Amino acid sequence: MRLSGTRISFLLLLLVKVILAKIGDPYRILSITRNAQNPEVKKAYKKLAKEWHPDKNSSPEAEAKFIEINHAYELLMDPDRRQLYDRTGQTEDQPNFRKQHDYSSFKRFETFDDIFSNFGGGRGGGGGFRFNFREGDGVNIFKKQSITFKAYMNSVVELTKKQPYLILFYSDWCIACAHIEPIWRRLAEELEPINFGLATVHAGRETELASKLGVKNVPYIIMLLDGHPYHYTEASLSMVSTLDFIRRKFPHKLVQRITDENLDTFLSGWVDNKVRVLIFGRLDIIRLRYLTLGWEFRERAVIGYVQMERSDTDSIRARYGVSNKVDTLLLFLEDSFTPAASVAMTDLPYPTMKDIIEANKYLLLPRLSSQAVFDALCPVESMRSRRRLCVVLVSEDNPIHEPPRAALREYAIHDHYREKERVRYTYIFKEKQVEFINALTEGSGAPVEVNHHIVIIWRKDRYHLKYEWLEGGWKVNPDHHNNSRQTLKETIHRLLHSNEPMPYETIVQELFDEHAQGIVWRIINKLASVQDYLRENLTQDDVLPAVSILATILFIVAGGYLMSYLVKLEEGSVEGGIKGFMKGEAKQSPQLRIHELRGETYNGLIRMLKPGCRTIVMLCDGESKSKLMPKYHKACWPYRKSSYRNCTFVSLIGNKRMNTYMRLTLLCESTPRDLKTAPNYIEDIICL
Fold first, then answer.
1. Three-state SS string across 218-241, please?
2. Is the pLDDT confidence value at 439 over 50?
3. Strands 423-429, 454-459: pairing kind
4. What is this structure's pTM?
5. Which of 162, 271, 330, 487 lies most in the core, judged by the most C-beta atoms within 10 Å?
6. Would you tell me how many other CB atoms lie within 10 Å of the CB of residue 85?
7. Which interval of the chain is the signal sequence (predicted)?
8. Nearest-5° Cα angle at 386, 383 to 387
């Protein structure tokens, strides 16, 4: 294959950018003084990085300038490298006469070795212009840590439940990928000893994985915690910015800061079935190794950090006799005054801290709060001669049930079988593990009330177990407690040293996970994850279209709901009108109005009555009207819908109205009554 001179020049330019990148004066590059502090360096870097970013600056020098700015920022933010430069003027990127950089790792340029060798006598010649690339350790770190999509799904995702992972996506012919190789190597040296997993993915070959994680370009870094990806979105990559990114992605209170004020609350929180760990350090920040330690043991331990230089922690150091010259780790079980394990060193290594917590990650009397705890404390053993017993006290989540638990805890401390791991002492909340308790009470030997009773369990397999209830229960009162202790001791000894079968067996389901998040918290966490994803993946150019699409969807949904509501209202109105028309009655409830018989109402109420119609007239005066009208209204109410009955009244006030009364009485009776008896007569009529 022949290459033109222009193409060879272009390839040489790319090669020179990778190999001969140098840093000038970092203070001059960032336009700051030599006395500038870290905040000033960071501020200047952000300003220049935004100005010279290749995606935003079309200048031909933008890429080289951006790399130069990144180098300067990384050097000045590293205290050791900055001190070296201030003292000697030397950087790691500037070779000196005693150190020769080995670029043999860039084997991908070996294709052009033949081309350049033609200028000086071929591959075997001793002169001429040629590159002698050998297989080295440079870019091999990418190949060494490379994973596939299958490995990611089957292994890495599961590992991230206890081990954070940092994944770098790279590709061939990626100048920036070759540039960050030294940074990635330093990250590996820093993070791998503190239980951090690092992996690389070739984006060109593992396109499915890149698409799944939302990788748009290379190099690209993603951090995995419990299978959830967090995207590195800084404009450039450096050691300092990467470590800051990692620190920010851990849960906020994974490692709590402890002072005199919250110490007792922290240590007394073991009722959540987790041990307490106090780490005493001299640094103001919480070291990354403590965060990864807290992540690995977050299900079994709660870690607190005591910064010894603070004045509000002096009493804590005095309480436990901790020296401020070394870092110290104290592990507490139920006793908050005496640590169960401790270690003090100038620099606490991760394996040492891990070994201490691993050996003491369960309380003296732990609770069977999940299937994972049950499997760890009560392992399966099919052989009867080697069976392991699990002594379970049935209790409730109530402070009044603490004395029986405290008594069993005190008994377990002095039991030599526990030290040999043949017997584990635990307790269980019956109101939270209902199915498990029901399976144990199906047998005929179960007590009527299981509270404060002990059941001894032997697991033959995951779901099949044999058991025996302790006779007499677990008594804590002084008169019977010694008998309970003796009975328990004899029962355990008998079951361990004889081939006597246990009397009952049952099938149990998996225990309910008491530490699992409820549906509300799961929804909140899911929304928070979506928010993080959108914040990390949406650029400023994507915000306006996304908001526009969201607003359009909301407008369509709201408009559709409004139209549906109006249609339902109209349908209800039409349907009601049809029903009213078919039934021949109004929609409103009928009302009864009693009109006074006057000259203008006389024709309608009396004179123009149709045959068969009747008008009922109540005669009253000013005094009796207020008393009689409610009764009259009530008497006429049943006829409110009738068109053959009308109700009216006449007020007899003055001589003219009295004449009306006389005329009406003549119509009703042949002999008119005396006027003096008229009021009583009127009242009598209404009563009838």
1. CCEEEEEECCEEEECCCCCCCHHH
2. yes
3. unpaired
4. 0.61
5. 330
6. 22
7. 1-21
8. 80
